Amino acid sequence: MKGARRPEVRLPQLEPYRGAGLEPDGDYDSLEFLEEDLAGQDGAGARFLDCALRGCALDETRLRHARILDSVFTGLRGVGTDLAESTLRDVELVDARLGGVQLHGAVLERVVIRGGKIDYLNMRKAKLKDVVFEGCVLVEPDFGGARLERVEFVDCAVKGADLSAATMTDVDLRKAAELDIARGVDRLAGAVISPSQLLDLAPVLAAEMGVRV
């Protein structure tokens, strides 16, 4: 089992963001967004490099095809944030309170999602490599058709996960505080679970195999 490589984000001296709002294909470099209300804004295709977003509102914010690199997001909140087909590399997402986040088709590499709660996370057909979910709550996350490589779940609760058609390589689920798989339990090949998790999943595995207990 190969462990995930965590990001090592070292932010430079940041300048306060003083813009009038996000712009499509905007270029944001070494900026701090502090408690900005970005709800409903369109930043599709934007690039964030060496940025910090702290306490910002992202309700229905459009960030499709965005590139987020070497950045730290803390205390974000919002419903319906659209990050579909975006790229996140060397990113820390800390204490987020989000719902219905669209990350389908996204590429995540060296990303840590720590603390907070994310409801109905859509990661269908996303590519995750060196990603750590730590101390967070994921309610009905959808990993359908996603590719997970060196992904760890540490002290987090995973409730009602959909793994349909997902593929896994070196995925470590042993330290998950709660592991509930609603669909796709047959896609756990390539993952490692603990003996206690195996017992918890036994009824679902038996049903998948057509075994009556």
Automatic annotation (TrEMBL):
InterPro entries for this protein: 5peptide_repeat (IPR001646), Pentapeptide-BTB/POZ_domain (IPR051082)
Any single Pfam family the record assigns to this protein: Pentapeptide_4
Region (Disordered): 1-23
Transmembrane residue ranges: none
Highest taxon of the lineage: Bacteria
Protein name, UniProt field: Pentapeptide repeat protein
Organism, scientific name: Streptomyces regalis
